[in-house]
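stage 2 :: seqdesign
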């Protein structure tokens, strides 16, 4: 025969025995009511937890791509604005070339305008967003363009002086410039002068940019070019046009020879403007692809969020009811404990 002992200690502790379990359940209910998500996904879902982990990893990846796309879009916007400035300068120069003929006083005006245009082109191609140079290509950490006076001027002057037997120290001001014939000038522009802008000479004297543009991953399996290199042929042609008018003894050339220089400059500037339009269109296409990728990733993220809600979300009304029930049970436990403390074993004797 077994006798169950009744003691004050047993009576006091009976209501309190359930408190740890109730407090744990209360904390869990509080978390679920506050977050709207299961407090312990692994415990509640078991083997289904792997799906939620995969979905959250995918959401994190999509968010990282979206953040990267925002940076790429901002960079493309700045590059487009810079291209607009370059195109505007080229159009203004073309207007001068078309509107001013090789007459008295025109050479000085054109030379000054060309030099100003070359300086503006160099400054724009050296534009930085604070972290990288927009026209540096993959070499975005290096300033792309050299200043004309400190870089390519020496090689241009040397070629000009060597071709026409001019003063090497200052070929632009040599009186012998006036004797250069139109045919000789056209030949010089097509040979030695053009060679100063070919790949090797451009990299050696003009630009430290990379030929390869930077690319960005804009979607899980899609990349686009998100930069422009200062080595684009449009930039070279525009630099050629500015340089041939701004230098090469412009103010001392005969009217016929100056006219041949202006004709070449018009042709070169027109080609540059056309190519600049193509570059701008290429960047516009990249911007459109980024927008389309963002739309698709947003849709994919919404699908993931919906599935995560199905797996992890809790019913707020049910969580509130459970929280209230547990709170009531805890209050009852404390009340019973208080009453038990007032009892004595003598009540059972």
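stage 2 :: out
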């Amino acid at each position: 025969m077994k006798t169950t002992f009744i003691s004050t200690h047993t009576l006091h502790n009976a209501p309190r025995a359930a408190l740890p379990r109730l407090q744990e359940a209360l904390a869990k209910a509080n978390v679920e009511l506050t977050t709207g998500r299961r407090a312990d996904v692994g415990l509640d879902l078991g083997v289904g937890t792997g799906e939620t982990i995969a979905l959250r990893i995918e959401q994190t990846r999509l968010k990282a791509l979206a953040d990267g796309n925002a940076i790429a879009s901002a960079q493309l916007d700045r590059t487009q604005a810079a291209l607009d400035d370059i195109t505007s300068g080229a159009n203004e120069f073309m207007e001068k070339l078309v509107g001013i003929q090789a007459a008295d006083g025109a050479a000085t005006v054109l030379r000054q305008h060309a030099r100003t245009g070359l300086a503006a082109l160099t400054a724009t191609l050296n534009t930085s967003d604070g972290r990288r140079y927009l026209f540096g290509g993959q070499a975005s950490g290096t300033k792309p363009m050299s200043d004309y006076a400190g870089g390519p001027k020496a090689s241009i002057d040397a070629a000009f002086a060597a071709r026409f037997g001019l003063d090497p120290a200052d070929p632009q001001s040599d009186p012998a410039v006036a004797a250069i014939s139109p045919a000789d000038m056209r030949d010089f522009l097509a040979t030695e002068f053009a060679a100063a802008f070919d790949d090797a000479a451009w990299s050696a004297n003009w630009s430290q940019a990379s030929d390869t543009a930077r690319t960005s991953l804009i979607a899980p399996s899609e990349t686009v070019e998100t930069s422009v290199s200062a080595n684009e042929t449009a930039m070279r042609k525009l630099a050629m046009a500015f340089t041939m008018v701004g230098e090469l003894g412009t103010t001392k050339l005969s009217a016929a020879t100056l006219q041949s220089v202006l004709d070449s400059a018009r042709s070169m500037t027109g080609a540059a403007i056309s190519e600049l339009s193509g570059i701008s269109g290429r960047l516009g296409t990249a911007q459109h692809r980024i927008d389309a990728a963002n739309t698709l990733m947003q849709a994919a993220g919404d699908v993931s969020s919906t599935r995560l809600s199905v797996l992890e979300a809790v019913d707020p009304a049910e969580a509130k009811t459970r929280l209230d029930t547990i709170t009531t049970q805890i209050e009852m436990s404390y009340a019973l404990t208080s009453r038990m403390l007032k009892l004595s074993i003598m009540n059972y004797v």
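stage 3 :: structure notes
- The CA atoms of residues 100 and 106 lie 6 Å apart.
- The chain is about 65% helix and 5% strand.
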